[in-house]
Amino acid sequence: MDTEIRIERVLPATITRVYDAWTRAELLMRWYCPNPALELKVDADVRPGGSYVVEMGPHVVRGTYLEVVPPTRLVFSWQWDGTDDAPTRVEVELIEVPEGTRMQLSHTGFASAEDTANHRLGWEPELDRLVDLLASVTQ
């Protein structure tokens, strides 16, 4: 049973810009939802033990930052409101490379392969939106 997601991408931006896109609420609100038609609200207290809430239309996910190592690493829990599912874990590793920044994202701890697949369907377009944001001239 596949219960983890691993995605690696090289992003066209400096490590600082990528880290900012993951940690600044005003930037998260420009990409952190797979469906751009949904209203997006983000509240993020990015520090170890800090919490975040992301409202994607009627869908709300929240969690706690477990590790915050600027500008290379973020680890946080992930739990949807309205479910009894145990929190999952998201890890984001950023590494400077000549082409920009290599981002390694892992999302682990899913209860089923179906849940894993559904989250992968969310991450892929969301990360495409991140690439678009980073490629824009003004961030």
Describe the structure.
The protein has helices at residues 15-23, 25-28, 113-135, and strands at 4-11, 40-44, 51-56, 59-69, 73-80, 88-97, 100-108. The protein is α+β, with helices and mostly antiparallel strands and 139 residues long. It has one domain (4-135): Alpha-D-Glucose-1,6-Bisphosphate, Chain A, domain 4. It has a 7-stranded antiparallel beta sheet with strand order 1-7-6-5-4-3-2. A hairpin with a 3-residue loop joins strand 4 (59-69) and strand 5 (73-80). It is globular and about 40 Å long. The N and C termini lie far apart (39 Å). The mean pLDDT is 95.
Structure keywords:
139 residues; alpha+beta; Alpha-D-Glucose-1,6-Bisphosphate, Chain A, domain 4; 7-stranded antiparallel sheet; 3 helices
What's the layout of helices and strands?
Layout: E1 4-11, H1 15-23, H2 25-28, E2 40-44, E3 51-56, E4 59-69, E5 73-80, E6 88-97, E7 100-108, H3 113-135
Antiparallel strand pairs: 1-7, 2-3, 3-4, 4-5, 5-6, 6-7
